[in-house]
Amino acid sequence: MARCRKCRRKKADVFIPHHRLPLCEEHFLEWFEEYLARTVKKFKMFSPKAKILVAISGGKDSLVLWKALNNLGYHTEGLFVDLGIEDFSLISRRVAENFAEELDRPLHVVSIAKEIGLTIPDLKSRTKKYCSLCGSIKRYFFNRFARQNNFDVLVTGHNLDDEASSLLSNTINWQLKYLARKYPVLPEGNGFVRKAKPLCRFTAFEIKEYARLQKIEYLTERCPLSPEATRLVYAELMDELEEKMPGTKIRFYMDYLRKVYPIFNKQVEDFLDRPLTQCEFCGEPAVSSPCFVCKLKAEAKA
Ligand code: FES
Ligand code: ZN
Ligand code: ZN
Fold first, then answer.
1. CATH of the domain at 293
2. Which residue lies with its CA nearest to atom 1 of ligand 1?
3. Which residue is closest in CA terms to ligand 1's atom 4?
4. What domain range is 272 assigned to?
5. 194-196 and 277-278: which strand pairing?
6. Model pTM?
7. What ipTM does this complex have?
8. Is 122 marked within a binding site?
């Protein structure tokens, strides 16, 4: 492999294809954190003093994000939502807790079995839509925890591969509501906290390399319950395009943000379709009252 572009001394450990950048271990880690800081600044995600809640799953993205933000000196705490998916939840929780201990930062845990009285496997036996319901449940608890505990922003580990493939899927299906949400930072309002995706310009490969060099132990298993079939088709398509034309993902995504997103931006609140009412039981923003979580709670008790 070539020499590191930065020090020109050491052998390169990592080659970043779409930046055409060979870097040694030290300078790759430095590049990664600098690029992260620049992404935060570029999209005005949060200030250096912000109190940040990191949504932790135990996978590479959330742990890498937590580590890198912590190294940059931000005030961070983690939140893990325990979905009660048997071994999968047990193992991911353990991975997250071990990591938090090593990082010496607090990890909060919300268990949906305790909160709602139901687990995701329970929901699976009741509805085919359990997977998207699971996504909504996670968003509900992340938002509620962040707001109730005065965090300035909730950050998630979505990376460039995720953003580019869901952008492709949302475009092919013209899902305007989702497209309007695609921006890497969403403002607070109507009971929702500010949200940001600081890894949106990093590929899964770069994140894996950061995890490898920082010796981060993360969970590689995917949730055994999520039917991934369609999501994977778009991800594979994007990977194929990227392989044939390196830089496609970042161009597709950044050009969307630069050229197309401003069209939504003017009316983003309309497109975001944020619920206007509040649940009379839990106080969370909701389409109608009781909200979907309080309905589930009542069902669990029945
Ligand atoms: Fe929600 Fe698997 S993580 S269904
Ligand atoms: Zn170097
Ligand atoms: Zn409610």
1. 3.40.50.620
2. 134
3. 131
4. 46-301
5. unpaired
6. 0.93
7. 0.92
8. no
